[in-house]
Specification:
It is a single chain. By secondary structure, the protein is mainly α. Helices cover 51% and strands 7% of the residues. It is built from six helices and four strands. It has helices at 13-27, 69-88, 95-111, 122-140, 148-155, 160-168, and strands spanning 43-44, 47-48, 54-57, 60-63. The strands form two sheets. It has a two-stranded antiparallel ribbon. Strands 3-4 form a two-stranded antiparallel sheet. Helix 2 (69-88) packs antiparallel against helix 3 (95-111), helix 3 (95-111) packs antiparallel against helix 4 (122-140) and helix 4 crosses helix 5. The radius of gyration is 24 Å and the shape is elongated. The relative contact order is 0.09.
Length: 171
């Protein structure tokens, strides 16, 4: 048997609110076409606000699509660059020094604002984790195909996803 769906009566409070928002949106040219993105005309103290693709506030990059991909791409690129420099100087640092550089300089920059972007996509979460995987290989001198879990256990590191959950107070 097929599922049964009930409809909202036209006189219900929810239906009245939906009709009000729809009518208001159409009258104010906010909702012009359900399939087309509309530009919002927002005012702050009578001054129109410029609509931008992305904006950085306190080091966090917010984008108009409400996704974290652009922010994560930026922090991953910066972190990988720092780890790459550490890799090129691998013979000049002892293992404990490389671990300390990652833990005190690179990882904090990577985790800054992590409670905000914790709801990122799985793909973005994997990108962030790949940075720590790269750092683990550089710090230990392990081969590229070394299992990440083994490196984590050897270094005593938890995944960045787990660290974000702890930062949010979720365990």
């Amino acid at each position: 048997s097929s599922p049964q769906f009930s409809t909202v009566p036209h006189s219900s409070p929810i239906s009245l609110e939906i009709n009000f928002v729809s009518t208001y949106g159409n009258n104010k040219s906010i909702i012009s076409n359900k399939n087309k993105k509309s530009k919002l005309n927002l005012l702050l103290n009578g001054t129109p606000l410029e609509q931008v693709k992305q904006s950085k506030h306190l080091g966090i990059l917010f984008s108009d699509d409400l996704k974290w991909s652009k922010h994560i791409d930026v922090i991953v690129k910066k972190a990988n660059s720092k780890i790459g420099r550490m890799y090129r100087c691998k013979n000049k640092f002892q293992r404990r020094d490389k671990i300390n550089i990652y833990r005190t300089i690179i990882r904090p920059a990577l985790e800054y604002g992590n409670v905000i972007y914790d709801n990122c996509s799985l793909q973005d979460s994997k990108k962030i984790e790949s940075v720590q995987k790269f750092a683990a290989r550089v710090c230990t001198g392990a081969m590229k195909r070394t299992e990440y879990k083994k490196l984590q256990n050897e270094l005593g590191w938890t995944s960045l996803k787990s660290r974000r959950a702890i930062s949010k107070g979720i365990r």
